[in-house]
Every structure is written in C-alpha cells, then in structure tokens.
Amino acid sequence: MTQTAEIERIVREVLAELASAPVPAPSASLAPPAPPPPSPPKKNHSQELVLASRLVTTNEISGRLAGVRRLVVRPGTVITPAVKEEIAERNIQVIFDATEKDVSSGTLKIAIVAAQAKIDPEPLAAALKNDGIDIDLYSSKCPIEATDRIAGEVKKPATLGLMLTPYEAESLCLANRLPGVRAIAGRDAAQVAADAAAVGANVLVVNPKKIGPYAIRQMVNEFARGGARHCPDVLKSRLE
C-alpha cells in the first residue's frame, strides 16, 4: 500500500470514530443567563397634578399644566367645559380617585380668625371644608387679640393660620413680632404660593374688603397645598 493510500485510510478511520462518538451536553455554567423579568413601570408623580377643589376652573390650572399627563381629582368634582377642552388638547388624562391625597386633604388644619372683618366667615369655612381642609373658626374684636390667637394655633402640629381682617398692615406687623409666626399678605394664589415657600409661612393675612370669597378660597387652597412649612435654615436666626 502506498503512503498516500495509508494516510487516507487513517483519516477515514478517525472521521468514522468522531462521527460515532456521543456529543457531550453543553455545560450549564456555559449557558447564557436568563434575562431578568421586566421591572414594572414606576409611577411618575411629577407628571400628576392633584387638586382638592370640588370645582376645577381655568384659574385652578392656570400655569400648572406643563409636563402634566394626569389630572387627579376626587370623585364628584366638577370640571368646567373650558378646562375639559384645554386638558383634551394637551392629551391629559383625568383620574377620579378618592385615595389620592393632596397635602391639603385631611392631614392639615387651618385656624381661621376673623378680626373685625365685618363679613360672615361661615360660608368660606364651609367651602374650605368642602375642599377637604379641616377648619377651626374663631372671631375677635381686636387685632392684637386675634394675632395672639393665631400665634397659639400655629404652634399646634400640622396647623396653619388664616386671619381675615381689614387691618392687614397692622396685623402683619403684630403677627410677625410673635415667636414662631411667619405671616404673609394674601393678594392672589400665585403670589401666596411663592411667598409661603420663600419664608416658610404659617399665617396668611387677607383683607376681605379687597379680596372676594372665591379668590380667598383659591389662595387658602394654595396656601394649604404646601402643608405646615418649616422656616428656611438661612432665616432661622432672625425669624425664629
């Protein structure tokens, strides 16, 4: 047999042995890991606007819809046609949810002191209660006595103060001289929100001879939305 024929014979025998040999099972350690189960989507609360009011008007949502995907309101809330049209244009979903909690619903109390206001504060108190705010109502014939009452009330946990009086400037000065009181004046809801955040306000002073009941209600809801605020650290040495 020639050398070439002998080499071909050996190659054929080797190939035949390889073909008949069992194929080893792949090692489990070499198998690719199973992909992890997908994580459930996280709820992005920054895309929600939660309103406690029972009536949602364009004033309630003005300047507050940027980036919002869900408008959360309580069951039974009335949404005006103008608001419905705007949120439809922005593709915002309306959710009626009794479990969603705004900071002003059920966790906060507002002590209202009417000092020579010459108005009946009961309708305002009833409207705020309807908005989900717990209310204590007091009356006084003296701004000094009224500010002392407010100062005592806001020392209680989760309590803010609302003073209704035509003596706005005097009441602000008197209130802000009392320890722990950080009072601001009420002009409109946006200004109240900004001023309250700036100084950690816990008392709102409103002149009901200049501001109507509906505007006061809006301001108080905005004031309550921030909850019982703490004094900013940078102002504590002077304001506390």
Order of helices and strands: HEEHEEHEEHEHEHEHEHH
Number of domains: 2
Terminal Cα separation, in Å?
111 Å
As residue ranges, the low-confidence spans are 26-30, 38-45, 100-106
* Main pleated sheet: 5 strands, parallel
User: What would you call the shape?
Assistant: elongated
Radius of gyration: 34 Å
Any idea of the CATH topology of the largest domain?
Ribose 5-phosphate Isomerase B, Chain: A
The CATH architecture of the largest domain can be given as 3-Layer(aba) Sandwich
Total beta strands: 10
Q: How much helix is in the residues?
A: 25-40%
State the secondary-structure class.
alpha/beta
Percentage of residues in strands:
15-25%
Number of helical segments with 4 or more residues? 9
CATH class bucket of the largest domain: Alpha Beta
Layout of secondary structure:
Blueprint (H helix, E strand, L loop, with lengths): L2 H18 L27 E3 L4 E2 L1 H4 L8 E4 L4 E2 L1 H9 L3 E4 L12 E7 L6 H9 L3 E7 L2 H11 L5 E6 L3 H8 L7 E3 L3 H11 L3 E4 L6 H13 L10 H4 L1
Parallel strand pairs: 1-3, 2-4, 3-5, 6-7, 6-8, 8-10, 9-10
Helix pairs in contact: 5-6, 7-8
How would you characterize the overall build of this protein?
There is one protein chain. α5 crosses α6 and α7 (189-199) packs parallel to α8 (213-225). The protein has two domains: 45-96; 109-231, 3-Layer(aba) Sandwich (Ribose 5-phosphate Isomerase B, Chain: A), CATH 3.40.1400. It is 36% helix and 18% strand. With 240 residues, the chain is an alpha/beta fold. It has helices spanning 3-20, 58-61, 81-89, 122-130, 143-153, 168-175, 189-199, 213-225, 236-239; strands at residues 48-50, 55-56, 70-73, 78-79, 93-96, 109-115, 134-140, 159-164, 183-185, 203-206. β9 (183-185), α7 (189-199) and β10 (203-206) form a beta-alpha-beta unit. It is elongated and about 125 Å long. Strands 7-6-8-10-9 form a five-stranded parallel β-sheet, with helices on both faces. Strands 1-3-5 form a three-stranded parallel β-sheet, with no helix packed on it.
